[in-house]
Amino acid sequence: MSGIITTEYIREKYLRRLPTAFCPGCGDGQILGALIRAIEQLNIPKNEIVTVSGIGCSAWIPSPYLRIDSLHTTHGRPIAFATGVKAANPKLKVIVVTGDGDAVGIGGNHLLHAARTNIGLTVIMVNNAVYAMTGGQVAPTTPHEAKTSTTPYGNPAFNLNVSEVVAAAGASYVARWTTWHINRLIESIKKAMNKKGFSFIEVISQCPTYGGRLLNMDHIEMLHYFRDNFRENADGMFRIGEFVDVEKPELTDELEKLIMKVKS
Amino acid sequence: MIGPGKYFVEGDVAAAYGAIMAGCRFFAGYPITPASEITQAMAELLPKYGGKFLQMEDEIASISAIIGASWAGIKSMTATSGPGFSLMQENIGYAAMTETPIVIIDVQRAGPAIGQATRPAQGDVMQSRFGSHGDYENIVLSPNSVQEMFDLAVKSFNLAERFRVPVILLSDAEVGHMMERLNVPEKVEILERKRAVTFEETTKWGEDLIPPMGRFGDGLELIVTGSTHKPDGTRDTGEPDVQDQLVRRLINKIEKNRNLIEDWEEIDSEDADYLIVSYGASSRPSKGAFMKLRERGLKIGYFRPRVLWPAPEKRLYELSERVKKVFLTEMSLRGYRMEIEKIFPKSVIHIPKVNGKVHSVKEVLSSIEVSI
């Protein structure tokens, strides 16, 4: 009972309108739900948050649904835009919502350098293993031999383990979950948002429209697949959980220190 | 700190001084010849003024970051040259579409492609206006001295803030790298953007067609998108009228205010049968040639746009009624030619130079002499 009342309150407080434009069964709605629950549970005033997104289905998670400042940018660049927002006003909690094509395909360089500089952004990367908005083309995250609309005979290339790359690049916090693990995801977003440095959460998500068609699975079957295959003690892409959780100097803090030093 | 007084600096450094005096407090950039001196000067100056400097991973990231910073309420700038300017084009269109005030300095070098990194050219004139896809307008300024690198840098910020557009300070390697005296005044005139206090205000505009701008973190719950959007910012890519009205306003806010933006230097044109048109570094030998020809009694005038786009069309059309021949001097085979030939369809003698060197006075003189 109280759960229902809480849900309606959150919807009113955080969302401009429903329903969303996402396909039936898409994981993006679940991730939007997780994001606003995390913000609500942290009790952060909405005017202290800015959301930034790029291009792709994931970009529509914050924009225009959230009743929070949102910057919907060009393909691959949300982390670079967010870097400017954060540097200009470090008091803001800057959340980037991006996809695998956006963050790793066209925008991989920005992801690497944001992790390296440890700028205090929270990046939530939805990984559905395809370019969904443009029609289910192969992505840097598509498994080997998988059929997509641009790999009709199977993917000749191999997929990137993004979380491990971001961990190696120097992020303060890295975690991977799936849309089956929503409560874990909410806790993880809360932790990431409280992290001083660069935090990155990869969410393995279902695309029932393209992924599902090619795999011949519906969204429920895909979620069950996530439940049965993704484990904290699994290897490679099937490993979920926290990969990195450390404290280290954050870029905008260092910039403030530098200003103090130069001025004195 | 930059106090008032006389300096002997290169153009790139003067532009950085101007930016600081105009209130620029965020710079994101990537090293490139011949613009690196601006980036280095900003790295040194900004922290002294409490501003932030970031060297980014590339030019795309640089322009992205300054757009983000501008929405957080900070005057922001980047500086680059041809190859980097090409990489920035997509987000110049994004800044135009989202009406974000930013300043981009392009210190032109000879192209295409890598070209001559250390040599001046003026081949980016059309790119500076039409480089991004789709219909949009922006403002482009052209300095021809170290002093103007300073003055027009200040002016670039004022125009960006006033009209909510990306403004391009289109310099070249000659002006960027030359050393001259710079006078820094006691105070410069600074314009600030119209700031919206409520969300409602961001959705409306007056006669100037420019809505007040919100700022991230003020609780306005702004929706900023590069997609076609309604006045309140919400994406609407299906409704024909939304696209039509948005694009027309983006063009018209410059078009209808062009008398407030156009700026040029004009000498002895009242009785002129001939006119030299030039800008940037090539305007200096052109002015030398003009002075020599006037001394000899030739009825020739000198016209130098300080703002290239929007072009000073009204004034040039007036002059086209009496001027018999126009000599356009520039370091490009294309440059400003289409614009000038549009206004003077049959009377333009083009005097381009594209070997990475600025014209000499003698070269300009001899090119004019054979044509009259």
Weakly predicted, low-confidence segments of chain B: none
- Whole-number tally of structural domains of chain B: 3
- List the total number of helices of chain A: 10
Largest sheet of chain B: 8 strands, mixed
Structural class of chain A: alpha/beta
Mass-distribution shape of chain A: globular
What class, by secondary structure content of chain B? alpha/beta
Low-confidence stretches of chain A: none
- What is the CATH superfamily label of chain A? Thiamin diphosphate (ThDP)-binding fold, Pyr/PP domains
Q: Name the CATH architecture of the largest domain in chain B.
A: 3-Layer(aba) Sandwich
Beta content of chain B: 15-25%
CATH topology of the largest domain in chain B: Rossmann fold
* Number of strand elements of chain A: 9
By CATH, the superfamily of the largest domain in chain B comes out as Thiamin diphosphate (ThDP)-binding fold, Pyr/PP domains
- The protein's oligomeric status is heterodimer
How far is the first residue's CA from the last residue's CA of chain B? 52 Å
Order of helices and strands of chain B: EHEHEHEHEEHEHEHEEHHEEHEEHEHEH
Average pLDDT score of chain B: 98
Helix content of chain B: 25-40%
